[in-house]
Amino acid sequence: MEPAADDEVLSASRHDGGGIRVDSSGSPVVEVLRAAGIARATIDHGALVLEPDPVRMGRSWGEPDVVRTATALGALSPAFAAAARQVVYLFVDFVRREGLRRTHRENAIPKGPAAKLAGLLSWADEAAAVKEDGHGLWSDKVSRVARDIGLVTFEVKGVYAGYSSQSESFPENDIEVNEKRLAAWLAQDPVKKERAILEALVRSTASEFFHHATLWEGERFDGFGCATGPASRMDLPAVRNGLLAILADLPVGDWLPVRGLIDLVHRQAPTLILDPKLREPLAERWMPYDQRKQKKTASKLEDLYTNFREHTVRDRWGQQDQLAESTPDVFSRVEGRYIQFFLEEIPWLCGFVDLALPPERRPKPDDRVPPLEWIRAFRLTPRLRQVVRSDPELARVKVTVLPNFEVVVEAPSFPDRELDALSPFCVRVKEDGPTHLLRLDRKTVVTLAASRKTAPPVPEVLQRLAGTPPPANVAAEIRDWLGQADKLVVYEDCALVELRGAEGLSASVRDELGALVAESCAREFLLARKPERTVSVLEQRGRAPLVVIHRKGRFATCDGPLGAGAAPLEPAANVAVPAPKKRVRLTVTDLVGYRCDDPALLAALHASLQTSAACQLVEREGLLLVPATDLPKVRAALKRLENRFDVDLAR
User: Fold this and answer.
1) Is 91 exposed, middle or buried (0-12, 13-18, 19+ CB in 10 A)?
2) Which of 143, 403, 551, 580 is surrounded by the fewest CB atoms within 10 Å?
3) Do 241 and 258 touch, CB atoms closer than 8 A?
4) Dihedral of alpha carbons 162, 164, 168, 170, sign
């Protein structure tokens, strides 16, 4: 073929849509070009038409050195992003160790615990947010995710305390760990745990159109009127899952322009975010109400974009421009903004993306609000594809016990099950990406064995996790440590119960006390926790126990040589024997009062609630009437009477 002819063919075959038409009769070329990142390759009258994929062509966009880059939450390297369940586990472990009560008014994480959690959770700006706002921001989001997957419980619906209350209150709203659910969660497959957290975020996150991202500042669409219209009928979980599926097909580790992603969604799934089926018929305004209710005019439908308005910086408090289906480039103005809002929340919180932002500058009067190009580019981490497609590689965990008493845990995702099993007898040294370094600690092992009768056998736990027995020197040293725990066991706040009676008395009393029994090795003695409660249980069983309280210095001397020449100790003052608690049953009646057969309890409870003038005691009926606004005070009053009454509260 002559060169001139070649030039003529190419120049005559340029495609108006940005592609290139090349004469070709070999169809295998089509498949090759598709594999190379061509969005569409078709044959038109013997000519091959190529249309480049704007996202895949973004591979040549290069590193965004002219814009600000933000690394995904907790990202340690492009090959490893911290799993969202790492912060969930650290939060639950903190609550399990220290307890946590949410604030009375805002139902938020208080400033003190939030400051401690800021050092545990992986968002670097949490400490500054706590200092500025007075409560936790990221820790509050983590607590709600933990609640959604059932690891903790707390109230999210408050009470209106008082007739003039304008907002809800949350009295004594403690975060409590569901230990049974936590044990099942830790034993679960890592892939299922990752999916469960992602599904909780997909299911419970508020609409990105109108609500700010958890960790990002930025404008959103005005939410006025968003309770109705097409935006209120969106199936948000389906939209988010669809976008995650599209992202999972894109290349990992390359910076891709957001504009290309918007074009890709517009071409592949134009109705994914806002479907025209969401529109409903508009009723004629001139019709009476009953006619509008019975018949709607089907000839006119709602505008798909009736919920969305934009304005300029100059007109922030002035006129807003209503977007409509006839607005030029309306897909980019609405759905394009949603895609950017979406990247800032769920993919960011899960460590799926890194984001490239435009350079900082002062807003200009003609800038649009919300901004059109808030994010310039994004880069996917391997985590997205692994979680969305349930990659079994996430379940891989390798535990190695070294002769120097170090334990190395390697896992592509956070090994919460292994770390929770090792934490009772190990101390954490450092965390470096997918590698966690711990060290076996003698003091921790001895304390564990001494404080827990059913302490886990350390060598067996190490062998189960590692798959091989620990080194011989490590196993021998651990056995020596466990032996030290048998030399002395100190019991605090326990009662020594002496059993005098028939042969089977010991077994009967042990069964009656149940969980109160701390130690029962001897046949005629046992140690019981909570002495006052123990005496109360024995009295209820008709045992008539004889309670003996010894003086403080009774056992300070001995009869041996050391005690013979020693000066006698000052006798301690006699300790009064506490009266046993009276066990009563208190029944809530129709949420307005409490009924009890014991008038002493009702009288004491009434006296403790004297701050309420509306609280009345009906002695002849054994009823204490309490107004609904004072019901939260009853719990505090009962707590003050614990030293006199053992109350069984029933409804």
Assistant:
1) buried
2) 403
3) no
4) negative
